């Protein structure tokens, strides 16, 4: 709880410091487009379908019983499922970037071009974030909230400071989202490294079992409903505004 609280508190502080600077640098219109892209990222990550929570719950249970075969099944099903989901979500967002902007007819041609490129770059962010969630699920199962939060906080600070720096140097919105895409991929690799370290020495092999898949699928579906409500209430109003 302490690790999560510190992470959340510092993130809020960083946001309060960077948002006014960003608005001053890119203007209210630019920040509106940036908020649109951020909200879209938040909503599209709903595609995770509860797999991140399932990873933590089932991996923790497998660790408790010491069942390496069950652990292998959990990891294959959740990570493999998330790779499919993340790829589909990112692909749909990439293709839907232009049609989505038809709902905003007041955008100028320049703004529309920027927004389209930003949304397509955000597809990379979505792909990386979705895969990160399963890897963080493994870290939580091992109760390594210290590593998880420290890494997330460090990259969040680097991402926000980098975005402000890009804007200060005259970079446009696509360059800012490009920076976020790069840091998201770096964070994905870092979480993959931590997961590999935690699993090192365990006999984790590709395994598949229908009963296990149905069990994880049922649990994921139940937890996904809660996630949908939380994201819609926290992000959808931003798109309306």
Question: Keyphrases for this structure?
Answer:
0% strand, 85% helix, mainly alpha, 7 helices, single chain
Q: What percent of the residues sit in helical stretches (DSSP H or I)?
A: over 70%
Helix and strand content put the structural class at mainly alpha
- The N- and C-terminal alpha carbons lie at a distance of 33 Å
Spans of at least 5 consecutive residues with low confidence:
none
Average pLDDT level: 84
Number of helices: 7
Provide the β-strand percentage band. Answer: under 5%
Q: Which geometry do the CA atoms define? A: globular
Radius of gyration: 19 Å
Helix-strand topology string: HHHHHHH
Largest sheet: none
How many β-strand stretches? 0
Write the layout of secondary structure elements.
Blueprint: H1 2-44, H2 51-65, H3 68-100, H4 109-141, H5 145-168, H6 173-199, H7 210-240
Helix pairs in contact: 1-4, 1-5, 1-7, 2-3, 2-4, 2-7, 3-4, 4-6, 5-6
Describe the structure.
85% of the residues lie in helices and 0% in strands. The protein has 7 helices and no strands. The model has no long low-confidence stretch (mean pLDDT 84).
Please sum up the structure shown.
The chain is an all-alpha fold and 241 residues long. 85% of the residues lie in helices and 0% in strands.
């Amino acid at each position: 709880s302490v690790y999560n609280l510190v992470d959340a508190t510092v993130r809020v502080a960083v946001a309060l410091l960077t948002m006014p600077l960003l608005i001053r640098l890119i203007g209210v219109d630019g920040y509106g487009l940036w908020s649109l892209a951020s909200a879209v990222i938040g909503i599209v990550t709903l595609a995770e379908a509860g797999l991140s929570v399932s990873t933590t719950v089932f991996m923790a249970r497998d660790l408790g019983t010491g069942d390496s075969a069950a652990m292998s099944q959990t990891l294959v099903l959740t990570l493999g499922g998330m790779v499919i989901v993340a790829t589909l979500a990112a692909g749909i967002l990439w293709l839907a970037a232009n049609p989505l902007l038809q709902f905003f007819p007041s955008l100028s041609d320049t703004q529309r071009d920027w927004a389209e490129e930003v949304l397509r770059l955000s597809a990379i962010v979505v792909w990386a974030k979705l895969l990160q969630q399963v890897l963080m699920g493994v870290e939580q199962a091992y109760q390594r909230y210290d590593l998880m939060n420290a890494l997330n906080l460090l990259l969040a600070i680097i991402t926000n400071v980098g975005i402000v720096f890009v804007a200060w140097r005259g970079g446009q919105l696509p360059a800012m989202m490009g920076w976020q895409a790069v840091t998201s991929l770096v964070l994905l690799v870092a979480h993959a490294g931590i997961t590999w370290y935690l699993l090192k020495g365990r006999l984790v092999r590709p395994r598949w079992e229908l009963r296990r898949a149905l069990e994880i699928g049922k649990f994921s579906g139940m937890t996904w409903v809660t996630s949908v409500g939380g994201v819609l209430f926290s992000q959808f109003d931003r798109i309306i505004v």
